[in-house]
Specification:
It comes from Sediminicola luteus. The chain has strands spanning about 5, 15, 20-25, 40-50, 55-60, 65-70, 75-80, 85-90, 90-95, 100-105, 115-120, 130-135, 145-150, 160, 165-170, 175-180, 185-195, 200, 205, 210-215, 220-225, 225-235. By secondary structure, it is an all-beta fold.
């Protein structure tokens, strides 16, 4: 039997620190909801807005796959491995924290906010060597199709992580339908609407809504308006 969980945009956790406004799909920091700890190994889905010139100071991570997807603006990254980089809309960044790293994230611009998704996925291997990567997805993007931006396979298109997870994005015009087929048995799919209105398996979704679906072989998406979506397939069994 198909199982689903619906998270409407206005039911997410919310924190406003002045320099940072964040919406939490799952429990994070001071937002704790026993019913929203994770979706399978998808542990964090934060929708962050950082004010001009502000950012997250240097802080540590370990044994987590951290994915950042800028939606507007430019985010400056520095880490203890010596990486210094800027990621912008159209990029995807991945950080395998493994045995431990420290990093900082700053809004590169002082005159406008940066908006980005911060996503944490629990890894299937502990204490790996920390790793950093980023790509521009411009060459991968396909109009009115779902296109892969993350997988478990280094040789595939997009970035890769230490987990049997696949991320796809889509820019779909109104009326376009797409079928997404599950890559691995036991995985579920979490669909997050970046913009517009979409119907997934008969459930109407709007901007920043999320829908998790599992115990299925595929899902059906139909764009009700011009829309942007993020499809995250992850194992439902915790490591």
């Amino acid at each position: 039997m198909t199982n689903t969980v619906l998270h409407k945009a206005d039911t997410r956790g919310h924190a406003n620190h002045g320099w940072l406004e964040s919406h939490h799909t799952f429990s994070f920091a001071n937002y704790h909801n026993r019913e929203r700890m994770n979706f399978g190994v998808l542990r964090v889905l934060n929708d962050d807005v950082v004010a001009g010139g502000m950012g997250f100071g240097t802080h540590p991570h370990s044994n987590m796959e951290i994915i950042s997807i800028p939606l507007e603006g430019d985010l400056q990254h520095k880490d203890s491995m010596g990486n210094v980089a800027v990621i912008s809309q159209g990029d995807v960044q991945v950080l395998s924290a493994g045995t431990g790293i420290s990093h900082s994230e700053q809004n590169k611009n002082k005159d406008r906010a940066v908006k980005f998704l911060q996503i944490w996925v629990m890894p299937n291997k502990q204490n790996v060597t920390p790793r950093y990567d980023q790509i521009s997805i411009g060459d991968l993007e396909k109009k009115n199709e779902l296109y892969q931006v993350l997988s478990p396979n280094p040789e595939d298109s997009g970035v890769w992580i230490h987990q049997d997870a696949w991320f796809f994005m889509g820019n779909l015009e109104a009326g376009v339908s797409q079928e997404y087929k599950i890559h691995k048995s036991g995985n579920g799919v979490y669909v997050f609407i970046l913009d517009g209105d979409v119907t997934v398996n008969g459930q109407a979704l709007n901007k920043r809504d999320g829908l998790g679906v599992w115990d299925v072989d595929c899902i059906q998406l139909k764009a009700d308006t011009d829309t942007k979506v993020l499809v995250m397939e992850v194992p439902m069994q915790l490591p």
